[in-house]
Amino acid sequence: MRPIALLFLITALLFNTHSYSAKKWGATGHRVVGAIADQYTSNKTKRHLKKLLNHQSLAFVSTFSDEIKSDPRFKEFGVWHYVNMPFDETYETSKKNPSGDLVSGIEKCVRIIKDDNASDEDKAFYLKMLIHLVGDLHQPMHIGLEEDRGGNDITVKWQFKDSNLHKVWDSQMIDSFGMSYSELAENATYITKSQVKALQQGSVIDWVNDTQNLTEIIYDSVTPGENLRYEYSYKYLETARTQMQIAGIRLAKVLNELF
């Protein structure tokens, strides 16, 4: 078992999920990630964020990368939201998209934010992109298979309405719970400083491989055409909440290291 996979198993136990077998996250999910990250950023980091983000919160700007999708000027950034790779490969061994992917997108964001010659305007743009992409990294269906577009082509029903596996994990399961992003963030599972430190270990690539372990399990959690209802939420909502919490904790690490 890969070390990062072992960390995932330990994490599942720490968070007491019903099952570690649990679009991006939808707007709610991304805002949860931003709000949780804010709890773990240093005061120094907060000062830099406040300056670059014009006093807007991490939760507020976390959806920026999705909002610009409707503007053709930003079409090139579409491939940054995901990584497609077979389950028998890791990111390191998989064939890379020459147009870029989630990992290369995060790397470019970090590079520009650290560039002393970059304008504050460019740094702010790529900072907002980064905040979103670290959230996407932890949405399991964003580390999915190319042939079904990360679960978008796996048709299911959600509470008797037509849907797909990607959409269920993006937003429907979370939004059906009926809590705001701030309520979800405030009720994240309590963890110790040593547990936070353990979750922040590794690189972005390690985290992608970590999420892929969960993605494979989620692919096996449904049958195409299945009507997913309360039982599915009972099994997997805690897994989604855990992923959002891990994303926030790791986003804070990335931001603290930047600033």
Automatic annotation (TrEMBL):
Keywords, sorted A to Z: Disulfide bond, Endonuclease, Glycoprotein, Hydrolase, Metal-binding, Nuclease, Signal
Record InterPro entries: PLipase_C/P1_nuclease_dom_sf (IPR008947), S1/P1nuclease (IPR003154)
GO terms classed as biological process: DNA catabolic process
Signal peptide range in chain numbering: 1-21
GO molecular function per UniProt: endonuclease activity; hydrolase activity, acting on ester bonds; metal ion binding; nucleic acid binding
Pfam families documented for this protein: S1-P1_nuclease
Protein name as catalogued: S1/P1 nuclease
Organism expressing this protein natively: Gelidibacter algens
